[in-house]
Amino acid sequence: MPLAKEVSIEQKLKALYKLQIIDTQISKLQAIRGELPNEVADLEDDIAGMETRLANMANDIKAIEDSISQNKTRIIDAKALAKKYEKQLEGVKNNREYDALNKEIEIQGLEQQAADKRIKNANMDAEQKKNGITALDLELAGRKQDLKNKKGELESIIADTEKEEALLNKDRDKAVVVADDRLVTSYNRIRTSMKNGMGVAVIMRESCGGCFAGIPPQRQADIKLRKKIIVCENCGRVLVDPELADEVSK
To answer: What is the pTM of this model?
Structure first.
């Protein structure tokens, strides 16, 4: 079985610079989407929260209606008891019984008043809850329309860019295979730590194309030889000579 051909440092540098070009192009495509993915996710969270609040408010109204029903039953029972005691007044034999029955009639009257007050308060609470549901329903409808619009916009952008991004990712996978794992890992670490997403820098005017720190002549000469991986002493980016960048970009 033939041995796998060893990849030269020059090939690795070219693959790494190719990786940088591809990642920059992918970042540009992703930038077209902007904040849309986050906006869609936020709207979905908002809608889920509103639907939960609506469900809770509906449960509250059900509980209020149950309370109203219970108080109406108390009024019916209190009236029945009062009527019973009034009937018993006709057969009282002494003042003590008379006073006792009048006291019970009074208690049932107070029970009716209390239940009636609770019903009025409950109806006010229910009305406020229903008004709140109406307002929240209106807001929810608006959010759902916003979500529909944002999703449509995002899907349109994705449809326009996904084919190109898929091809770029395919080329990226090929470049990763050529550059060794440690070099790619280092590149990814540097790239993600930089605001401009640049992990490889081309020498420009005897300086690092990433941070613009000066590069000594001997170091520039070593970079042009492409015999070893050389990084910027200031920012840590992998350095390549302009000729190599031109060769890869063609």
So the answer is: 0.60
